[in-house]
Amino acid sequence: MTDFLHLFWDPDPIMLSAGPLRVAWYGVMWAVSFMLGYYLMRYIFAREKAPAKWLDPLVLYMVLGSVLGARLGHCFFYEPDYYLSNPLEIIMIQKGGMASHGGAIGIILVLAIWSRRVSKLSMLWILDRIVIAVAIAGVLIRFGNFINQEIVGSESNASYAFVFPRNDQGSTYEARPEDKGIEVKLKAEEFRSTLPDLFRSYDGVGYERVAGEWTGATLDGDRAVKRLDATVKDTCCVNYAFLYTDPKGEKMVAPQDTNDTRRITLRQSVASRTAKFDGRWVGDSLELLFSWGDPNMEQASFSVQLMESADGINWTKLKGADLDGAVQSASLQAKVAPPAGSTMTYLVAYKAKADLNYIARHPAQLYEAFCYLLILGFLLWLYFKQDGKIPLGQHFGWFLILIFTARFFIEYFKAWQVDFLGDSPINMGQILSIPFVMAGVFFLVRSRSQPREFQHPEEPE
Question: How far is CA 5 from CA 8, 158, 359, 360, in A?
Fold first, then answer.
């Protein structure tokens, strides 16, 4: 059992909403990153006596290169088939999808143009300095992803793991922290007959009933619905399922002889017209037999489970079968040996397929932001240690090596965004990181033979 609550993270991604005006935190992070980058580059230009008129074109080039590159990178690195079939959605940035690898390529391309048309210096001169500003942007943008519950990490039971309900919660349910728990709401209209009970399981085998009351009918459109109100206080890394436990069709299995103190009850909540549940003694064991089939049902949207309980509250799953798609029949069979003097109940239960899973995950966005913060500190330290006299390509090389090495290893803590590489041990983000690291090694080694100072073209010889 989980002994602690994980961190439930569900802030409003909208920072400000006034009439038609909506300001998102993610957009604010982008804007602040450009603003801080602008002031940093202005300071560097003044310190190195670079022409101030270079700065405004630089900002414009950076905005275009980073945003367009990141968007196109996501579209064509991760989901090319979809966006080639729906090209108009490429420009719909509000729907999400920005790739840092694409942003890096976009920045390099526009800075090549800027260097050729504006500074007349080697492109590496501006790259060595702009990467400091890019590191700042990386920290802020990943924090924006954290607020938006994007680029979430893989599942984790660590005490510092986070629950990202917007990412993992099914749309049927509403949940918010309440009294250090989660309030669960379910519309009863999804179920055609008996109202289900809410159960939870820590291992997928043992289920315990969660106390909750179905409240009176309310109108939702033109249909009356009911709502289950329950507050769950140990909520993370637990599977919540709605199980039918209607006792209709309940019957007793006769004891083997007059000395048998075992009382066996069979309960079936699956419609009797489509299913049969029976039990028979085989030696000292009870053989449970269940079969289901309805040739007229085109699609089943639930599973069935054989459950065992000694108190009618806590249940143990013995066998289960999913009934999906074209599957129109299932057979379950299990042998159990109820202890003497016990009253055991066996149930064939519906399990609603829309399970409520609250999953705790690594805060991969924060891992990445922290790495970028360390890289920012290293680049600033090295810049001031060398008094701004950077061997051509040195900072750019270090940036590529450190940023994309961090990206490579942090990917192991991320939930994979697009899984189209089959059983590959590495994902697309890691594959794209490798050439950047190799390029960084090249520029770092090359910088050892490069000069430390450059005379700007507009300065007198």
Answer: 8, 10, 12, 10
Structure tokens at 147: 């607020």
Instruction: Show Cβ contacts of residue 368 under 8 Å, excluding neighbours closer than 6 positions.
Output: 138, 142, 151, 406, 407, 410
Q: What is the dihedral of CA 396, 401, 406, 409, to 10 degrees?
A: 160
Give the DSSP letter string of 226-276. Answer: EEEEEEESS-TTEEEEEE----TT-EEEPPSSTT---EEEEEE-S-TTTEE
Helix pair angle (123-148, 25-47), 10° resolution: 160
Sign of CA dihedral 194, 195, 201, 203: positive
DSSP label of 416 = P
Closest alpha carbon to 70 in 31, 102, 29, 92: 102
Note down pLDDT in tens along the chain; length 461 residues.
Answer: 333 456 778 788 888 888 788 888 888 998 999 999 999 999 999 999 999 999 999 999 998 998 888 888 888 877 788 888 888 888 777 666 677 778 888 999 999 999 999 999 999 999 999 999 999 999 999 999 999 888 899 888 777 888 787 776 543 344 444 444 455 555 555 555 567 777 877 777 888 887 777 777 665 555 666 666 666 655 455 667 777 777 777 888 888 888 888 889 988 877 666 778 888 888 888 898 888 766 554 445 567 788 899 988 888 988 887 765 455 566 788 899 888 888 899 888 776 544 455 677 899 999 999 999 999 999 999 999 999 899 999 999 999 999 999 999 999 998 865 555 556 778 888 888 999 999 999 999 999 988 776 555 554 44
Stated length of the chain: 461
- Beta strands 285-293 and 223-232 are unpaired
